[in-house]
């Protein structure tokens, strides 16, 4: 596939297995992502790379990175993951926030690790202007980039997005890994560094995998500390009268209709099979179905009832 700018695609996204023709979504995401959202997402990733260009020298000097900055970067990575968020206005707000953070770090850190456009770019005010600028952040924008370098950079970026999904959840529970937090920044900055060779980017890819394991450990610690280790529990396995609900489309309430069997045959049966009530279905086949007397239903059940099935 050629360059998206060359071919004037409205968007370019190939971050998930649903991607169109296994090449890239270029008009509208198979997932429903619009070109507007895809382009805002490109610009958001561009911005957190720029933030990382200012944050990296601070980390290297031993200055602890403000967790609100890390949390913002993690949230951006998670927001732009496949189909997590398609709300353009949320992306615009995150973009504005990214510029505020970038300016703060610029004032604090001074020079970026390297003065690439990611660091020096300043976001405009309006969404229209942001969309006008978004092509500079497109995956294929740099036409001269070595395809292996581009692929490795994207692989690391998608790894970071995966890490963010776990990290975001762990942070919600009050857990995080300082090592992984620094890694978000170090890796994003590395993706702007034209001096890195294929071999160095392969090493970074491997390191991304290690960080994914580190974050999963942290999430496991959070879950098992707060919710305990999963263990077998006793549950009630006795079948009872059931009410089948969702997925049934009759316009008439079940109690107004003639045989419930009719309902079972016309959809509830399929649903019941899907939901695993095989024993009950066998009973249905053996005429253990009956119409439910309206008087036996609560008002709530009357609203939701599709068919009432009992064992023979
Ligand atoms: S996330 Fe959506 S737009 Fe991107 S490749 Fe997957 S289906 Fe296409």
Largest sheet report: 2 strands, antiparallel
Ligands, deduplicated: iron/sulfur cluster
Relative strand content? under 5%
Shape: globular
Strands side by side in the biggest sheet: 1-2
Number of helices: 11
Helix-strand pattern: HHHHHHHHEHHHE
Through-space gap between termini: 62 Å
Strand tally is 2
The residue ranges in which pLDDT falls below 50 over 5 or more consecutive positions are 1-5, 246-295, 304-312
Helix content: 40-55%
What are the salient characteristics of this protein?
312 residues, two-stranded antiparallel ribbon, 11 helices, globular, disordered C terminus, binds iron/sulfur cluster
Q: How would you describe the overall organization of this protein?
A:
With 312 residues, this protein is mainly α. The protein is 54% helix and 2% strand. It is built from 11 helices and 2 strands. The radius of gyration is 27 Å and the shape is globular. Residues 1-5, 246-295 and 304-312 have low confidence and may be disordered. The structure holds iron/sulfur cluster. The site of iron/sulfur cluster has 13 residues, from loops.
Topology:
Layout: H1 35-60, H2 67-79, H3 88-109, H4 117-120, H5 127-133, H6 147-172, H7 178-190, H8 198-227, E1 242-244, H9 260-274, H10 278-285, H11 299-304, E2 307-309
Antiparallel strand pairs: 1-2
Helix pairs in contact: 1-2, 1-3, 1-7, 2-3, 2-6, 2-7, 6-7, 6-8, 7-8, 9-10
Give a quick summary of the entry:
The chain is mainly α and 312 residues long.
């Amino acid at each position: 596939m050629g360059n998206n700018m060359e071919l004037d695609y409205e968007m370019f996204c190939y971050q998930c297995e649903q991607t169109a023709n296994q090449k890239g979504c270029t008009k509208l995401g198979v997932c429903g992502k619009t070109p507007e959202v895809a382009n805002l997402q490109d610009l958001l990733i561009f911005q957190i790379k720029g933030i990382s260009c200012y944050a990296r020298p601070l980390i290297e000097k031993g200055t602890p990175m403000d967790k609100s900055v890390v949390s913002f970067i993690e949230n951006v990575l998670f927001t732009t993951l496949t189909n997590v968020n398609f709300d353009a206005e949320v992306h615009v707000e995150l973009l504005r926030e990214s510029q505020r953070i970038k300016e703060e770090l610029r004032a604090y850190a001074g020079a970026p690790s390297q003065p690439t456009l990611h660091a020096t770019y300043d976001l405009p005010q309006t969404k229209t202007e942001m969309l006008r600028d978004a092509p500079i952040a497109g995956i294929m924008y740099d036409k001269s980039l070595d395809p292996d370098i581009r692929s490795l950079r994207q692989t690391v970026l998608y790894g970071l997005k995966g890490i963010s999904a776990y990290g975001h959840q762990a942070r919600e529970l009050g857990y995080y890994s300082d090592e992984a937090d620094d890694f978000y920044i170090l890796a994003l900055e590395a993706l702007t560094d034209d001096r890195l060779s294929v071999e160095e980017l392969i090493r970074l890819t491997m390191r991304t995998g290690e960080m994914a394991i580190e974050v999963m450990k942290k999430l496991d610690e959070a879950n098992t500390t707060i919710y305990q280790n999963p263990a077998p529990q006793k549950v009630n396995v006795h079948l009872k009268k059931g009410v089948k609900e969702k997925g049934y489309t009759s316009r008439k309430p079940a109690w107004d209709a003639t045989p419930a069997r009719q309902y079972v045959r016309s959809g509830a049966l399929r649903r019941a099979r899907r939901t695993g009530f095989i024993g009950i279905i066998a009973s249905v086949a053996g005429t253990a179905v009956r119409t439910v007397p309206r008087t036996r239903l609560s008002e709530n059940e009357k609203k939701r009832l599709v068919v009432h099935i009992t064992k023979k």
